[in-house]
Amino acid sequence: MDAKDILGLPKNSFPALEKKSRPHKESHRKPDGISREVYALTGGLPPLMPSLDSSQLKKKPPSHEKITWQWLPFTNSARKDNLQLYHWVRVVNGVPPTGDYSFAKYNKSVDVVKYTDEEYDKYLTDPMWTKEETNQLFDLCERFDLRFIVIADRFPSSRTIEELKDRYYSVSRAILIARASSSGDVATHPLVKEPYNVTQEIERKRALSMVLSQTRQQERRDEEVVVEAKRIAELRMPAKAVEESQLAASNAVPEVTGRAVPGETASPSNNAQLPPFTLPDNASTIASLRILRVYLRTYALDQMVQATTSSAGPRTVKRIEQTLLDLGVNLKPRVPTKAVCAEHLELRKEMLTLLNLQKQVQYKEAEGSPFCDGSYNEAPGTPKDWTFIPDSMNFGGERVSKKDQKRKGHGHPSSAGHKRPRKKASEF
Amino acid sequence: MSQPLPLKRQGEHDDGAAPIKPSRLKIALSSDDADKKNANKRVKEVEICVPIVYGTSAFYLGRKASESQSHKWTVYVRGASNEDLGVVIKRAVFQLHPSFNNPTRVVESPPFELSECGWGEFEIAITLHFHSDVCDKQLDLYHPLKLYPEDESGPQSTKKPVVVESYDEIVFPEPSEAFIVRVQNHPAVVVPRLPAGLNLPSPVPIETGNEKERGDTKDHPLSQWFLNFSEADELLKLAAARQQVQAHIVKLRRQLSLVEGMPQLSKPPSTYES
To answer: Are residues B259 and A412, on separate chains, in Cβ contact within 8 Å?
Structure first.
């Protein structure tokens, strides 16, 4: 019973009729029958599958037939009992429809192998499995159509899904081979061609769950390892390097915690040469620098800075630069030695952290006291008078800003039990 | 007999299996060449750095100036402490403005510099080529030639040049053993402490053009105008800045944890400012 039945439309009215009318409806004209906006709800394009022919919808049901709907009993051949239920049936001219219950054909089940006791003793014995367990397994398999997760759950003794699968598939395979009149018959059967590999399955599932549970950081690290591997592979031996590093990438994930560069060779060289980086972005920069064979320190610093601030927007970058200038630090170090560059990079990273914290605090405060001056203040992210020293935070009034602090403090429940923040009008 | 390796592969090592030790070339060689090939082994744990200063120094010619030649200038690449760069650099190519005759000037021996007369300012491209055991790739530097002083007041002096210099460091991330061994104790090159257990072959001197002439710039005629580059100042500034930033981070973190701990307040009239 579906919409077509109810409307009395013929079920297979699609072919030629559609083809004629569809093509010229493909153009951008407003389709007839429904307004353009409604049509646009479908995505603005005619649906790929013809759904209902609109012209047919306006038709009236054929008048020469007498249609009635009757509440009649029916049986379902898919059921094993003889349950009789009732439902509405469309009766044409007094003749009810014939045929089985239309959903009975969907009752499919799996052909689970059935072995005799002799066959069991001959082919199927296994040290890890008793006959009883095997029988139980097969019974469950039949009941639950090889849904191993359910089967594993109901299995009386606790066995892993892989073990159950392994037992089931190897028994089936053995029976198949045993019953085949010649080996050639069954050679093409999927069970015979590709037997179930327990260890591989366990490994595969473990890897999958690892990938699923990876934190974003680990994902990033994996990416760079793969990137580095790819680059190295291009330079050196092709196939071998890529394989090895991909394995290393998935294996390195659980072991790497806070190490700068996992790398496919666990070399300590990077840590010895460069200050320890905690952001994974730098690892791929370092890798790409290595490949250059020779580079200028300023270039390297530039790359690192870009890598660090790649996640930040241009406004944040501007703020960092402004802050650097305010503090008297050259945007590009005048004497870019190794130590200076390292300090510079760390400083930038710390500023980024600081800005992020600032934003967080602003958000928290805006959340906490929406009726107060929190809303008066500029929305987070539009710092007009923002200066490096956020005195509006008003920590114990100890530090007075170096610049003009015209901005009113928030009316926030600040730390150290301060009440009203004061207007800071001038510097000392 | 020696087995010639294609140039690209020289000094490369395979990756993957070997964990920590510097990798070895897995190529079967006769024993004569074993030493030579080992010298090309790359050492990953050592980063060699050559601090340089490059720039221009320009004198106004004063009475001797003409329309087309108002200044005499020199572009150069020197060691940051005026040491001889010839130990690392084989030759330097200065690419001048096309209006110059033979705008591509090659300098085959240190000191790597070039003098010319002219009237215009333009960008000079300097390409450094290194000795074969150092690096087979070249490095490009760019420097804008400056003839006129910042302070435009008053007549130009013929005595004091307009000097613009940039400090930088050439970094070799994976130097070959031969290179390390050759420059280990050279004042122009910064070689970090070598990891223990590194067996280096004996040094092989490279061919240089003029062994006799000095390549360093310690007594260079222009040396009195060379700028000073000391990392101390910059380090101090950076350290101070970092301290400030870190202090603020700590404060903000504290504040953040307090704000988070506080319950949501609605309309506290005492803090509402009109």
So the answer is: yes
* A358 contact B CB<8A: yes
Q: Are residues A282 and A206 in the same domain?
A: no
Two tokens, residue B205 = 């001197």
d(CA A198, CA A165) in angstroms, rounded, equals 8
**In chain A, positions 247-266, which contact chain B (CB-CB < 8 Å)?**
264-266
In angstroms, the CA B154 to CA A409 distance is: 51
**A374, closest residue in chain B (CA to CA):** B272
- The structure tokens 């409806």 sit at A25
A168: distance to nearest CA of chain B, Å? Answer: 39
Count, in order, helices (H) and strands (E) of chain B.
3, 8
- In a mutagenesis test of the B interface, which of A236, A243, A293 is the best target, namely the one with the most B β-carbons within 10 Å? A293
Which of these ranges, A30-44, A189-203, B52-66, has the smallest mean pLDDT?
A30-44
- B248 touching chain A per CB within 8 A: yes
Q: What residue of A is the nearest CA neighbor of B237? A: A329
The per-residue pLDDT for range B150-200, each reduced to its tens digit, is: 877 777 788 889 999 999 999 999 888 888 888 888 888 998 888 777 777
Structural domain of residue A340, as residue ranges?
218-252+275-367
Q: Is A83 helix (H, G, I), strand (E, B) or coil?
A: coil
Both A121 and A199 in a single domain?
yes
Which of A140 and A397 is assigned the larger pLDDT?
A140
B264/A367 touch (CB, cutoff 8 Å), yes or no: yes
What total number of domains does chain A contain?
3
**A123 φ/ψ angles, rounded to the nearest 5 degrees:** -115, -25
> What average pLDDT does the segment B221-241 reach?
90
Residue A22 has pLDDT above 60, yes or no: no
In-domain check, residue A46: no
| Residues A163, A223 share a domain | no
Q: Are residues A247 and A345 in the same domain?
A: yes
Token pair belonging to A19: 């083809």
Helix pair angle (A338-368, A297-308), 10° resolution: 20
**Cα–Cα distance for residue pair A341/A322, rounded to 1 Å:** 18
Interface check for B227 against chain A (CB to CB < 8 A): the answer is: no
Asked if the structure places residue A402 within a domain, the reply is no
CATH code: domain of residue A138: 1.10.10.60
Query: Mutate which of B46, B52, B172, B237 to disrupt the A interface (most A C-beta within 10 Å)?
Result: B237
Specify whether A202 is located in the same domain as A284: no
pLDDT digits (tens, 9 = 90+) for B88-127: 999 999 999 999 999 999 999 889 999 999 999 999 999 9
Residues A180 and A90 in one domain: no
Say if residue A226 is in the same domain as residue A346: yes
